[in-house]
Amino acid sequence: GNTAAKLRAGQAVTVAYFGGGIHDAGGWRAAVGRWLKESYPQAKITLLDGSITDAVRGSGFSVYRFRHDVLEKRPDLVMIDFTSDDHQTPSLDIQRQYEGIFRQARRANPQLDLVLLHAFRAGMESAYRERLTPPAVTAIERVAAAYGVPSINMGLFAADLFAKGGWNGHTPNPALNELYASAVTDGLQTLLAAAPAGEHPLPKPLREDNLEAAGLLPITPAMLSGAWSELPPTHPDRQAQARHFETLWFTNQPGAKLTFTFTGSDASLYWLIGPDTGRIRVTVDGKDQGIKQQVDPWCYYQRLASIGLASGLPPGPHTVVVELLPEPPDRALPIAEAKRSNRYDPRAFEGVALRLGWIRTIGTP
Predict the structure, then answer these.
(1) How far is CA 223 from CA 69, 261, 263, in A?
(2) Is the N or C terminus of the chain more exposed, i.e. has fewer CB atoms within 10 Å?
(3) pLDDT category, 56, cuts 50, 70, 90?
(4) Which of these three, 145, 178, 194, is where a domain ends?
(5) Phi first, then psi: what are they for 196, rounded to 5°?
(6) What are phi and psi of 180, to 5 degrees?
(7) Does residue 278 share a domain with residue 149?
(8) Angle, vertex CA 15, rays to CA 14 and CA 18, nearest 5
(9) CATH number at residue 360
(10) Cβ-contact 263, 364 below 8 angstroms
(11) Do residues 230 and 329 share a domain?
């Protein structure tokens, strides 16, 4: 459509990949990028990496970051790849998440082209063996049909490779990368030749609870009380997440607080969790919501995560207070995993701290 017209005219084109971290920038994604540049040598093609790593891969997490990580960069084409990450997500949740992504895209730029990529995950083989679509694919396609978003099903071919023992059904290997690259380039070649140019319509919502209103709210100094510091751009934690965080606020002082007001139904923190992450007390509209913490075996290094603060609130403005508590959580699990992985540093587990990147909201900040 619009992307094809710009490619044929030799114009500048930005192609974004928006997906989880299993499919890294190498492998089949790199091969697809090379194919585009070789097929349209007269065009200036920029490849935008909108992927995310760690245990935050599904569309339900990424619908919040779509505007910041992708749409604000003004791409011409976005390849959306969350099917394998959403393979165990309930169908109704998938639909409200994908409809949120589609509606955000249409609002940002009606000429923006989207294409879905359906990758494989172990557990989908029985459906593909019967030449049926797995539940995640079916749920996504129901929304895609209403919004006119085409798709490329890589999973059908990968299922055969998995059945023959050619890979483990999770992390791509050379054989899978070659297969995926072929499927995506063949699909793009067909779509770029056939799709007409023009604006994509924004239909009425299929679900009133779709996540179009999911987004990120910046944390400002006015929201912070106690001893906080903004980590400099050269700090390793900041550098590691430069694509995702504009700022990263740090405190290791119990009693330090974050206080913010938003208009909407849900709020959560988009932060880093690691060996020294502390427990927090949450207050919403003056009511104590209890103590929250995030600890799992992989908290021996700093990684992306989110934690819910409030959900299902009535319409209107709401005030949320988050306070760092002095008592650390039980860190036995990450300590054991760190020792097993030969990455245990007892100093890393000392004290309590918070590293905050964004506030996530559903509604109008």
Answers:
(1) 23, 9, 16
(2) C
(3) confident
(4) 194
(5) -75, 155
(6) -65, -45
(7) no
(8) 130
(9) 2.60.120.260
(10) yes
(11) yes
Q: Which helix (H) or strand (E) holds 242?
A: none
Whose CA is closest to 70, among 17, 136, 128? 17
Encoded tokens for 193: 């030749």
Two structure tokens written together for 74? 């003004």
Name the 3-class secondary structure at 90.
coil
Residues 130 and 186 in one domain: yes
Q: What does the alpha-carbon distance between residue 216 and residue 360 come to, in Å, rounded to a whole number?
A: 5
Could you give the percent of the chain with pLDDT greater than 70? 99
Domains in the chain, number? 2
CB 235 within 8 A of CB 248: yes
N-term to C-term CA, the chain: 34
| Residues 18/102, Cβ–Cβ less than 8 Å | no
Q: Which residues have CB under 8 Å from 146's CB, separation 6+?
A: 203, 206
β-sheet bridge partners, residue 259: 321
Query: Is residue 177 a part of any domain in this protein?
Result: yes
Please give the residue range of the domain that contains residue 244. Answer: 219-364
Cβ pair 188, 220 in contact under 8 A: no
Residue with tokens 């999770």: 170
Same domain, 257 and 128: no
Higher pLDDT pick, 361 / 22? 361
Distances (CA, A) of 364 to 90, 239, 253, 266, 285: 26, 29, 31, 10, 17
In a domain, 202, yes or no: no
pTM above 0.70, yes or no: yes
Looking at the structure, tell me whether residues 94 and 148 fall in a common domain.
Answer: yes
Distance between CA 325 and CA 331 in Å, rounded?
Answer: 15
Domain limit, last residue, from 194, 229, 246: 194
Contact 226, 363 (CB under 8 A): no
357: CB partners within 8 A, 6+ apart: 219, 241, 244, 245, 247, 248, 249, 270, 271, 272
Domain CATH for 75: 3.40.50.1110
The token duo for 330 is 């039980």
